[in-house]
Amino acid sequence: MRETPKYFGVPHDPSSALQRTQSHHVRLKRYRIDRLLRRLIRHRTKWRQQQMDGFDRIYDLHKLLKGRKTALALNDILERMECSKATFHRIRRHMSDYLGAPIEFNRDQGGYRYMEGPDSGYELPGLWFNQQELYALLMIQSLLNNLSISLLQQELSPIKERIDRLLKKQSLDPELLHDRIRILGVATRQVDDHIFLPLAEAVARSKPLTITYSTRDSGVTSCRNISPLRMVNYRNNWYLDTWCHTRQDYRTFAMECIQSITDSKDTFQAIDSKTLDDYFNASYGIYAGDNIEWAVIEFTSDIANRVADELWHPQQKGELLADGRYRLSLPYNSDQPNELLMDIIRHGEAAKLIEPKSLQQQLIQRLQDSLSIYTD
């Protein structure tokens, strides 16, 4: 009987050779499929990137030409858009052919511009933003969510949906981006929708109001006729700057303490922005006043650099001392020193109030009162 031939000491089996051949073909086929899929993914990614770049290029060219009275030279366009001549002409043709952009070359001025005519003032169709502006809008959305005004969120939801669609067109996941932005508030106080929205309307339309207001500490309720001037979000809480017709003076109300709102028959007291800034920004904190004094605070070298980077007040004066400490001077309302005192206390032994001595005595008394509740 003829023996089965051996190769490298192993008996030759035709069936196993066939299996090895088939296995090789399967692996080869899988390799080719994988390579094809990777190539398709690369092409798709590149195509999406080109689409995304195209959106931004269109937007950039529109911003360059919009509102110009004179033509812009080609070299200036290429420099500002940071693109080649071929890319510019491709974008220009796309805008003219598909978006109806009236781009013309003006030979007298030697450059490109939007064509003048009865329909001048061309705008891109739909809602157009570049990537950076979309990211900024996402942050604004997160801020609005943090304000906890449910009815306002409902009104803005169509805009949010539109932004989400624009992000998806640029291959960006809006939910993932939302999850990566956090704006956290501390000690926020809720303002009811039936209070917030009428106040916002009254501020926008310069409409006088009558409000019922309950003070937070004493619980005393009063009725005030006001001209609402500004809504201020300060330290994650809402305040209303007003001209109070009842007191014939400026007043700031914490919006969560407003119980009811009705229309007023008083004439609205219009006040220009500079006058408002001069009054409400004259002293430290949210509550303004006329009795302005200057406080001097010194911070230890451990936190000097951090405090030096902080803006406590627009009129503050800061100085780094030779020993590494930081001296901060700022105006405050001597009738309302509470907020300044609390901000000094929160820095503990790292902050020392130097001037004025009267305010220093108030601070010492507060610290002693706080200590007494632990020593009694």
UniProtKB/TrEMBL annotation:
The UniProt record lists the WCX domain at 294-369
InterPro entries for the chain: CBASS_pafABC_assoc_protein, WCX_dom, WYL_dom
Q: Which Pfam families match?
A: WCX, WYL
Where's the WYL domain? 195-262
Which named protein is this? Uncharacterized protein
Taxonomy, top ranks, is: Bacteria, Pseudomonadati, Pseudomonadota, Gammaproteobacteria, Oceanospirillales
